[in-house]
UniProtKB/TrEMBL annotation:
Record InterPro entries: DUF3747 (IPR022222), SLH_dom (IPR001119)
Transmembrane segments: none
Organism: Crocosphaera watsonii WH 8501
Compositional bias per record (Low complexity), positions renumbered to this chain: 196-207
Highest taxon of source: Bacteria
Protein name, as recorded: S-layer homology region
Region (Disordered): 188-207
Domain SLH: residue ranges: 206-269, 274-337, 344-410
Pfam entry (one): SLH
């Protein structure tokens, strides 16, 4: 970004049949993601109260040999004292609080696009359910609090379910899976120690991002790939909203997640250089850790007031500057030449001559066609227009593919 300018029972419910807990006509889909097993004693699902009688899902993972992230008390239900709320949990706990941080995986199929995880009151307890996003599938029930009380409550997973972590090309990502096996569920919960790894062959790597509003979008294929890679997700109404502007913090978050598909990103790592926190990015903000990590590693963010204005939209010019920095960072980590080699003839855009980002836009046009005309038509780049979700995802996927191709070529030589 010239971001210097810049300025996401069974066993105990005897009356509930297995078929009612598993989706009818379960969508079998290929995925570029696999999963890895976790120490189940180090992860917990919590029903977190908010508002009057409302609860959402919080997943907490304890980092080994660090101070406790939570304490448990009682049973039916088990009350949770989320200690991480009382101290700086950086480097001690990992947590996920929304659908970008956890999803259902059943028999090797990632159901994040098909099901929304919710905590709902039912029969004198809170139940963790997967609610289908479209017709044709049944609700999935994954666990319950085994009672009701005031405050935070532990969600006990039913037999056949366990916590795993998402992996991509053998790299462990931060995304949690509630991973189930229909055979284990039917058998009462005999789960293998290591979940089956599932990886798609190149011919299978097609997206299941069947959003209702991208069927005619020119970036549909790249949106699909971005969703599969975990860079972006849709909305609860099964839309992607491709024309919606991308904010500064959203772009940074996506860029960090994109880098995480190439190597493991440790958001809790000690910075290699001093970074002054932005005045308008509180440590409790959902994007704070990613923004700090980006500052330390690949972005030159700042302005005279030391503010980021994280909720402000970015421009297409700023997007290209960020993509350039991201590509250089990845090439450096992969021991590739830092220069962005031109893979094709750069386009002569008709409206960039007066832009501060003219050189960057031209360079990114010649680098695997990352920079392209507005809506892929004509010769106008529209550098000052707001960057939309569809083009942002497309640009990010293009950078990753370009770096990957260069790395593969380097390995052959």
């Amino acid at each position: 970004m010239k971001i210097s300018r810049l300025p996401l029972k069974l066993a105990t419910l005897a009356t509930v049949t297995l078929s009612s807990l598993i989706p009818v006509n379960l969508p079998v889909k290929a995925s570029t993601f696999s999963e890895t097993a976790l120490d189940q004693s180090k992860v917990i699902a919590v029903a977190r109260p908010y508002g009057e009688g409302k609860y959402d899902l919080l997943v907490i993972e304890q980092i080994p040999e660090k101070r406790d992230c939570w304490a448990e008390n009682g049973s039916n239900p088990t009350l949770i004292d989320p200690l991480l709320l009382n101290f700086d949990f950086t480097g001690i706990c990992r947590r996920s609080t929304d659908s970008n941080g956890y999803s259902i995986r059943l028999d090797g199929n990632d159901l994040g696009l098909d099901y929304l995880l919710r905590v709902v009151p039912r029969g004198g307890e809170l139940v963790l359910v997967g609610t289908p996003r479209s017709a044709g599938y049944s609700e999935i029930v994954l666990g319950s609090t085994k009672g009701m009380a005031q405050g935070f409550m532990k969600i006990n997973l039913y037999p056949g379910w366990q916590f795993t972590k998402r992996t991509y090309q053998e790299k462990v990502l931060g995304h949690f899976y509630f991973s189930g096996s229909q055979a284990a569920i039917a058998a009462g919960g005999d789960i293998p120690d290591t979940p089956p790894a599932t990886s798609a062959s190149p011919s299978q790597r097609t997206s299941q991002a069947n959003f209702s509003d991208i069927s005619s979008n020119i970036y549909q294929g790249q949106i699909a790939k971005g969703v599969e890679m975990g860079l972006v997700s849709g909305f609860d109404d099964n839309t992607f909203r491709p024309d919606q502007p991308v904010t500064r913090e959203q772009l940074i978050s996506m860029a960090v997640d994109a880098i995480g598909t190439v190597y493991k990103v440790d958001l809790d790592a000690t910075p290699e250089r001093d970074v002054v926190p932005f005045k308008d990015v509180e440590s409790s903000r959902w994007s704070a850790k990613k923004i700090k990590w980006a500052q330390w590693n690949f972005l030159n963010i700042g302005n005279p007031n030391n503010t980021l204005q994280p909720s402000e939209p970015i421009s297409r010019a700023e997007l290209m500057d960020t993509m350039r920095r991201m590509a250089i960072h990845l090439k450096n980590r992969l021991d590739l030449p830092r220069e962005l080699q031109q893979t094709q003839e750069a386009m002569a855009f008709s409206d960039t001559s007066g832009s501060w980002a003219k050189t960057v836009i031209t360079q990114m046009s010649g680098y695997c066609g990352v920079a392209t005309p507005m809506n892929e038509r004509g010769t106008a780049f529209r550098p000052d227009e707001k960057a939309t979700r569809d083009y942002t995802v497309a640009a990010m996927v293009r950078v990753l593919e370009c770096v990957e191709a260069e790395a593969q070529q380097a390995n052959k030589n």
